[in-house]
């Protein structure tokens, strides 16, 4: 059996992990069970499934996208298809299919599909729960 150790960033202490061959009872979370209403967006809240991350999987038409909001943790976007115009604070960037971008915690952000085709993005939240504060609230 191999043991792996790694220092932690906050304390300098080591975490020791010994792998096991016994797996917990894990079920596939179907895409349909994550669908929000009748739309094309899916929401995965990690704490409900034993995960340390959460995500939105979005599929937007031209002009669609979430308005300005922020989170108390970083959010990472993976563009699966299309072109996204992403606003992060006072910056605007463009991300295309295959690109990844991350916004730090506490920064106002949003994105839109300004391309001609569909925009499909995986929006990964570095948290087991989703916490969002919207600018228009």
Structural features, described:
This protein is mostly beta strands and 137 residues long. The protein contains 1 helix and 12 strands; from the N terminus they run ββαββββββββββ. The chain has one helix spanning 31-34; strands spanning 4-7, 14-17, 42-44, 54-60, 69-70, 75-81, 83-88, 91-96, 100-103, 109-113, 119-125, 133-134.
Question: What's the SSE blueprint?
Answer:
Elements: E1 4-7, E2 14-17, H1 31-34, E3 42-44, E4 54-60, E5 69-70, E6 75-81, E7 83-88, E8 91-96, E9 100-103, E10 109-113, E11 119-125, E12 133-134
Antiparallel strand pairs: 1-2, 3-4, 4-11, 5-12, 6-9, 6-11, 7-8, 7-10
Task: Provide the succession of SSEs.
Answer: EEHEEEEEEEEEE
Helix content: under 10%
Q: Could you tell me the strand content as a percent range?
A: 35-45%
Shape: globular
Describe the main β-sheet briefly.
5 strands, antiparallel
Please give the alpha-carbon distance between the first and last residues. Answer: 53 Å
Q: What is the total tally of β strands?
A: 12
If you compute it from the alpha carbons, what radius of gyration comes out, rounded to the nearest whole angstrom?
A: 18 Å
Strand order across the largest sheet: 3-4-11-6-9
The number of helical elements comes to: 1
Mean pLDDT: 91
Structure at a glance:
With 137 residues, the protein is mainly β.
Task: List the defining traits of the structure above.
single chain, 137 residues, mainly beta, five-stranded antiparallel beta sheet, three-stranded antiparallel beta sheet, 1 helix
């Amino acid at each position: 059996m191999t043991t792996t150790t790694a220092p932690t960033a906050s304390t300098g202490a080591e975490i020791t992990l010994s792998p096991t061959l016994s797996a917990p009872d894990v079920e596939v979370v179907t895409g349909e069970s994550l669908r929000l209403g009748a739309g094309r967006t899916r929401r995965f809240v990690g704490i409900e499934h034993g995960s340390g991350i959460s995500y939105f999987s979005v599929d937007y038409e031209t002009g669609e996208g979430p308005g300005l909001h922020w989170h108390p943790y970083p959010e990472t976007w993976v563009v699966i298809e299309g072109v996204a115009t992403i606003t992060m604070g006072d910056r605007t960037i463009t991300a295309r299919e295959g690109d990844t971008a991350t916004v730090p915690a506490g920064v106002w952000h949003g994105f839109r599909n300004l391309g001609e085709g569909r925009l499909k993005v995986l929006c990964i939240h570095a948290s087991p729960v989703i916490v969002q504060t919207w600018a228009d609230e």
